[in-house]
């Protein structure tokens, strides 16, 4: 039972263009969402988060959009840079309780020069 | 301020053995969580400790156990290792129930 899904295993984008990574969830109890970036041989690095009371959160080149009715969130990176090439994980949690993170399978983003 | 550190970085064990993995939390963080990441998958929650007490557990058998110490460092113990336990084990710390920050992980191979 995959409660958080990232349906695109990989994405290739030209440097300078916009990268859009998508994530869907099924559990309506989730009310806090995060994006992590992971390079090989390193742990996931926190990028940006959003609470369910918002529909958008922006931090520099990174913007996360949340559509609660569709149970969908997306991460926009603009402009994309070669250093953005990594695996991106979407994660969700319910604020109440243990706040365990439920992760998607990841999307490998490649930025081409 | 140091980030989350884990030891060892790599480990090879044989089926049936026991293993202990260690994690030092980021300074000021009193919550630690452990995750297992199999190849090609996202991390899966094992359990969480808050102020030395278990604060939630994922769908892992009892042979996965943990400890959190007064200095908020932590251990993950796995008994009776199985081949499927081969994975990257990630520790994450947070100041209370806030955003979790991950260490580099320990890669375990069970032969």
User: What multimeric state do the chains show?
Assistant: heterodimer
> Stretches of chain B where pLDDT falls below 50 for ≥5 residues?
none
Arithmetic mean pLDDT of chain B: 93
Strands of chain B, total number:
11
Helix content of chain B: under 10%
Write down the Rg of chain B. Answer: 13 Å
Biggest interchain interface, per-side counts: A-B, 24 and 25 residues
Structural class of chain A: mainly beta
Q: Secondary-structure element sequence of chain A?
A: EEEEEEEEEEE
**What's the total helix number of chain A?**
0
Can you give the helix content of chain A as a percent range? Answer: under 10%
* Secondary-structure-derived class of chain B: mainly beta
Span between N and C termini of chain B?
A: 37 Å
The coarse silhouette of chain B is globular
Which runs of chain A of at least 5 residues are low in confidence (pLDDT < 50)?
none
User: Could you give the distance between the termini of chain A?
Assistant: 38 Å
**Mean pLDDT over the full residue set of chain A:** 94
Strand content of chain B: over 45%
Keywords:
heterodimer, A: 113 residues, mainly beta, six-stranded mixed beta sheet, five-stranded antiparallel beta sheet, globular, B: 111 residues, four-stranded antiparallel beta sheet
Care to give the gist of this entry?
The complex is a heterodimer of chains A (113) and B (111). With 113 residues, chain A is mainly β. Chain A is built from no helices and 11 strands.
Topology at a glance:
The complex is a heterodimer of chains A (113) and B (111).
Chain A: E1 4-5, E2 10-14, E3 19-25, E4 32-38, E5 45-51, E6 56-59, E7 62-67, E8 72-77, E9 86-93, E10 102-103, E11 107-112
Chain B: E1 5-7, E2 10-13, E3 19-24, E4 31-37, E5 44-50, E6 53-57, E7 64-68, E8 74-78, E9 87-94, E10 101-102, E11 106-110
Parallel strand pairs in B: 2-11
Antiparallel strand pairs in B: 1-3, 3-8, 4-5, 4-9, 5-6, 7-8, 9-10, 9-11
């Amino acid at each position: 039972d995959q409660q958080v899904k990232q349906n695109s295993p990989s994405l290739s984008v030209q440097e300078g263009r916009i990268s859009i990574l998508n994530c869907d969830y099924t559990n309506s109890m989730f009310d806090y969402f995060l994006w992590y970036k992971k390079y090989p041989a390193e742990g996931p690095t926190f990028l940006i988060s959003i609470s369910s009371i918002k529909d958008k959160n922006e931090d520099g080149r990174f913007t996360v959009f949340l559509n609660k009715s569709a149970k969908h969130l997306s991460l926009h990176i603009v402009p994309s840079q070669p250093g953005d090439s990594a695996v991106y994980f979407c994660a969700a949690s319910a604020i109440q309780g243990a706040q365990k993170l439920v992760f998607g399978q990841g999307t490998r983003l490649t930025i081409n020069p | 301020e140091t980030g989350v550190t884990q030891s060892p970085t790599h480990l090879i064990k044989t089926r049936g053995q026991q293993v202990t993995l260690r994690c030092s939390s980021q300074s000021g963080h009193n919550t630690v969580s452990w995750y297992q990441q199999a190849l090609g998958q996202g991390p899966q929650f094992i359990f969480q400790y808050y102020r030395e007490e278990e604060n939630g557990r994922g769908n892992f058998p009892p042979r996965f156990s943990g400890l959190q110490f007064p200095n908020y460092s932590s251990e993950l113990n796995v008994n009776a290792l199985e081949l499927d336990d081969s994975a990257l084990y990630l520790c994450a710390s947070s100041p209370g129930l806030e955003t979790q920050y991950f260490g580099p992980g320990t890669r375990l191979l069970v032969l």
